[in-house]
Amino acid sequence: MATISLSRIIAHWTAIQPGRKALSHEGRDVTWAELEARTNRLARAYQAFGVKPDDFVTIALPNGIEFFEACLATWKAGATPQPVSSRLPKFERDQIVEVGTPSLVVGVDAGEYAPIACLPIGYEPDAALSDAPLLEVTAASYKAMTSGGSTGRPKLIVSKQPAATDPDLPLLEIPQQGCMLIPGPLYHNGPFLWAMTALFKGCSVIVTTRFDAEETLRLIEAHKVDVIYTVPTMMRRIWALPDEVRTRYDLSSLKALWHLAAPCPPWLKECFIEWLGPKVIWELYGGTEGQGSTTIQGTDWLTHKGSVGRPVETCEMKVVGEDGQTLPPGEVGEVFIRPLAGAGTTYRYIGAEAKSIEGGWESLGDMGWMDAEGFLYLTDRLSDMILVGGANIYPAEVEAAIDAFPGVRSSAVIGLPDEDMGARLHAVIDRPEGPADPKAMEAHLAERLVRYKVPKSFEYVQEPVRDDAGKVRRKALREARLAAT
Fold first, then answer.
1. How far from each other are the two terminal CA atoms of the chain, in whole angstroms?
2. Which domains does the chain possess?
């Protein structure tokens, strides 16, 4: 099949399966025909508010049908969805709006970003607007995701893939007209990518407001789900259910359980392989920038335990030593990726500069090694980014919020081991006058950071946590705390 514009993809599937369920959220279903008509009307409303081709539309909506409708209306207007957390504090959202300069912000109070048009959660377009198809128009970029920055300010990662798709192209083990379950937050790149890819392939997409272990199993059985997106924290919580609860549900429809966004403990992966079968378990390693990735099925993992797989056919990878030389199999170094189409072909940043070495190779900040067969094994993180429950957190962003509290001279945020979330945030704060009032610090950070970026523990010290050059030695601070425990 030829490539189809995302402004036309819902119309394409509506012609084939108008009465079939397209989306389901907490008991509410929307058919393809309903989705097509509703998003045509919504796209006209967006255009009336000033949305033009290749504009950004910032979408601050919680998981639900309304989120999908906002993205589809954006594509139908020829623009690019730019999702953010609906629970983002205004301080953080303000910075993203400033960086992205969208023509519309969805999910906030009217007038909040005047003169930019703003629409509240639950907005319904004028019923008098036509729900007939709009003119076909294809945005130059199909998504612009938000990321924390190593500088403490957010950046946008703008895909260079246009807003078009080929539903016949095999991708992520997602079958055409199947069923996908997304229990993760749609403003994150992984859930967004899996959910939208499934929709573009004519699948029914089931989405939950938030993750619940037993409810996830119930939904797989009830909807005969083919593919599910997970992160290791979700897998841990499913495995922690009593055996009689976990084995109560029929999961035989499941063709692929994907896990990504954080390292999966080998023991947990083995449990899932034994439970669901090695052919069902899939892992992906890669970044939102899309330079490249690795994938591995459970069948290969059993003979390459601990590996995150081999590079996909669109990219190449190498492991580099401190002297910049490519290392032979078995030696640990920094992992670099390069798309075969060339450096800079998959994304561009707004609000940051890409870091690459000679030849267009880029690093996601991971250390690892490759075996003789080309399977990649990760050993440690080189960059400061901390993974908490599959979410990327840049310490600089959290430290900037802490440093704005009265009396704080400097701070360092590190990740300490956590059985459930993989890591938990711990703040080491240099405040000469002593510890801050916990409630005052909590209120201060709640205004500036989304909840999962707020440290779980605070430690106050009397000596600087940065050297004379302003550098913080997070690795040394982390090792000292681990040694103490």
1. 58
2. 4-370 (3.40.50.12780), 386-484 (3.30.300.30)
